[in-house]
Amino acid sequence: MKRFDIENYIAQLSMDCVIFGYEEKTLKVLISKFKFGEESWVLPGGYIRKTESINGAAIRVLKERTGLENIYLEQFRVFGDDHRIVGHPFNAVMMDELPKFDAERFDPEVTAWMTGRFVCIGFYALVDIQKVSPKNGEFDERLEWRSIDDIPTMVYDHNEILRNGLESLRQNLDEKLIGFNLLPETFTMKEVQELYEAVYAKAFTASNFQKKILDLDVLERLEKKFTGAQNKAPYLYRFKNSIQVNF
Amino acid sequence: MKRFDIENYIAQLSMDCVIFGYEEKTLKVLISKFKFGEESWVLPGGYIRKTESINGAAIRVLKERTGLENIYLEQFRVFGDDHRIVGHPFNAVMMDELPKFDAERFDPEVTAWMTGRFVCIGFYALVDIQKVSPKNGEFDERLEWRSIDDIPTMVYDHNEILRNGLESLRQNLDEKLIGFNLLPETFTMKEVQELYEAVYAKAFTASNFQKKILDLDVLERLEKKFTGAQNKAPYLYRFKNSIQVNF
Hints:
Chains A, B: InterPro entries: NUDIX_hydrolase-like_dom_sf, NUDIX_hydrolase_dom, WH-like_DNA-bd_sf, WH_DNA-bd_sf, WHD_NrtR. 2 copies of one chain form a homodimer. With 247 residues, chain A is an alpha+beta fold.
């Protein structure tokens, strides 16, 4: 393979993405087992081309890993400590293994570029987990959906990035009504409540919750869901607005 | 003067700061009349040294311009459009005037570096305006405190950066109780209310406002303010916590 074109990317600036999905009443994050090192987990991320906006870079990286376009996406914080990468034990692993992996593609100059200091822009994304077909990037051994209660220790400051992303999701869930991006197109009120409970890691009272959500006037009520038991069939709802993208 | 050391800074990454102050019942922002171009206004900003964190860079730039340390400071968004600088009319002005200003310090390589694409991290700061002695940076003709109702058209996307900073301030004022950083050490309840009214650009009812603020249990009541009129003297308050810095 040809040399990695560091000339095409902004140096020392990267983006990592906390990709949230939701299934089986559980909030999950898509993380990557890296090809380098042992038990080395990372958030999916990438570099920013000199010819694309930072949001364009995030959209591109997300499409590469999930196959999806039109994802709800939001930048939430920059991680810019000068020692977040350089001096970290995993960095020595990268310096050692990158050239062995592909000496032509990752020559000494490219390896030095990749293992130097990076300021990282944190994005989070909300996806319908059923629609995602995770696809490995060049350095991913495999991608896994992991419950937020079951996140391994990741390299560098990636656990801190994830924690910050989750905190932003919680702050924005109510305020910007972004949670519906985690659900399929139609859903029951109980499913909305279960989603909120999974995100906030606490229980809500069904009657209060339903009233609060309906009062927002953002849901369209559809036909009853067919369950076989006619009397207990719950209504299906659909979010009135289209996907909101924050830029 | 010696050549500007581009080697010491991260390329293509900058920071700009919305410095908020408050006086005469008015929320103000410290902006700079630039030395280059005509009627060219900018937010104070700077570059990030390879050996300092992004927060360290913001603290350094703020100290250079205001003389203050221990400022409440928060990053609020990254501005990363690929066309935010390159192609903007002011960029041509910079390319033309920088070398004329000091050909030795800003040689062709430095001029090209400074007028290329930059991704910009937006910070906002809250300062006690009485304590600030604005000090020009190398490119500032003068710094001015301007009311948020009287902000001129600034270069590049600096008006957008300011609008986003103000929006973040409004969101955080209640949630994180950061407004007290804009007041002197002791203040009356009326002064707190006037501050909130200036930030939100709307009026509050005095009794409701006082109850809401006191219920937060973050203020310490001190002696009455001496006004000469014994009966009407208002109480002075002090914020219980010290300055909060978000990193």
